[in-house]
Amino acid sequence: MSRRGGKSSGPEPYDFRRPTKLSREHIRTLQIAYETFARQYATLLTTSLRAVSSISLISIEQLTYDEYISGLSSPTVVAMFSIEPLPGTAILEFSLSTAMACIDHMLGGPGGPQPQRPLSDIEMPLLHGLIDRTLGELRYAFEGIVALRPQMTTIEYNPQFAQAGAASDAVIVSSFEMRVGTEECVASICLPFGSIFPKLQGERGEGVLTDAQRAAREAAYRNVVAGLEGAPIEVSVRFQPVRMHPADLIGLQPGDVVPLAHTTSTPLAVVTADITFAHAVPGAQGNRMACLVVPSPQPGQRPTAVGQLGMMNRAEETNR
């Protein structure tokens, strides 16, 4: 039996509080992108550092942000970057000794054992430039999924100081075996799940649906629309607001008169959830108050509601 088959044949723990949402198709899509990134990244390191480098994908997992951060060693290089136009912050992480080896090679050194210390003011711009070119390769690899414009924001050495998300936020973590000369480490890329997952679905999710699944989805959509159309919504007809001092507002007593700034020629606003969706003029229907919906005034048009109110009153007299 192969090693891969033996590993997949055993039981695996499953957390019902956090069901896995990445399907096999989603992981395969990410695998293709990350394998492209690994090849491009290895070529970039080899040509830039003039040292034999290799990058290979190890795994793709769905974790919480707290689980990811807790599994990182300290100190390490945690490069946070934006993934515009998508929301959220992503992380590129690799060991501090590997970063020191890269800088040593860029400065013409042989590599070898490196000190464990923060980067100096001279070394930091060199690492920034290398990471910027690395994010360019990540942008190229993800072109088939989403057109990213990654931009590095900051670098931390302690993972606990990296504020890229809430502890319970779901993230997609990919791990890579990274080798630069004689230096080896496990690098990782952490992407926010909520930003990437809709792009992974896209048209791919529609293509794998069967006819029965598509019919069930359309029936569910019709049921939701029918339910929303029959749901009661609170609607109000409002005058234009009036500005008052807090002292005048507190001192209001029954019988006081508050002058309104609403002119008689201006229609009232028909509002629901603080959104004006129509205009109307007041009137009556029998012994009940009512309003007549009228065309909304266009920008620059002089509002008038007197004639429309007269039409409503005449119509009411005719009904009587």
From TrEMBL:
Membrane topology: Peripheral membrane protein
Domain Flagellar motor switch protein FliN-like C-terminal span(s) in chain numbering: 228-293
Keyword Membrane carried by entry: yes
GO BP term (any one): positive chemotaxis
Molecular function via GO: cytoskeletal motor activity
Cellular localisation: Bacterial flagellum basal body; Cell membrane
Principal localisation: other
Gene3D superfamilies (alphabetical): CheC-like, SpoA-like
Domain of life of the native organism: Bacteria
Similarity section: Belongs to the FliM family.
Record's protein name: Flagellar motor switch protein FliM
Native organism: Dactylosporangium matsuzakiense
Classification lineage: Bacteria, Bacillati, Actinomycetota, Actinomycetes, Micromonosporales
